[in-house]
Amino acid sequence: MTSCGVQTDEFTIETWKVLLDDLDAKDFEKSVIELLKNKPSFYSTDNIPGLIREGAHTARRERIKLLEEKKRREALPEKRCGKEEAQENLKKIKELLDHF
Questions:
Q1: Stretch 25-49: mean pLDDT, rounded?
Q2: pTM (2 decimals)?
Q3: Which is nearest to 16 in space by CA: 64, 3, 30?
Q4: What is the CB-side half-sphere exposure of residue 63 using CA atoms within 13 A?
């Protein structure tokens, strides 16, 4: 049995499972989707599990970076004004715009 030109016998499927089983499901899914979107064809010499692992690690780094950025933003003190101050600021902006 072949899929995309790659042999997919029982041994190959079990081997891939062992090679990819430790990956986070979301990272794995994102990697497979990106791989299939960006690689139009596969050859028998392609290390597809390696490509999937590489993409999953990239997805994980991106996910961690986004989480760290979110934490950083949440740690910043919020500076919000009350309704009255917001209305006063809006009034000042309108006055400034009237001069142009």
A1: 92
A2: 0.64
A3: 3
A4: 13
